[in-house]
Amino acid sequence: xxxxxxxxxxxxxxxxxxxxxxxxxxxxxxxxxxxxxxxxxxxxxxxxxxxxxxxxxxxxxxxxxxxxxxxxxxxxxxxxxxxxxxxxxxxxxxxxxxxxxxxxxxxxxxxxxxxxxxxxxxxxxxxxxxxxxxxxxxxxxxxxxxxxxxxxx
Length: 153
Description:
Layout: E1 3-7, H1 10-17, E2 36-48, E3 59-62, E4 67-69, E5 75-81, E6 95-98, E7 105-107, E8 119-125, H2 132-140, H3 144-152
Parallel strand pairs: 2-8
Antiparallel strand pairs: 1-2, 2-5, 3-4, 3-6, 6-7
């Protein structure tokens, strides 16, 4: 897994973002945080949940202001903080996926042990627009004339 390391005042950053530092379980005092944080490269592919077609232009971001945009194949790569061993809550470090006319998605890119997942695989975004006429016909199975009358009046 590709990794880079940057110097950072993690205590200050976390307090500015509203993330609380967990206490040390044995002493009860605030946990010591590293003065450097490493970032691991995460990749994946974003597709439309209905068509399974790749979605270009999806904005991918995290809480440390790292960003990427999916390419025409729906692929992205982003540097994400490695919080393993810090005691920090992985749910405070989601990856956010946003695209117009689709519902935004948040993914926690960590294993149950707090390790960063290097490949998120396929991420699906749900379109927010739909074809009401087709949905009524598919769900209720009314005769076409009934559906036509309902959707045009």
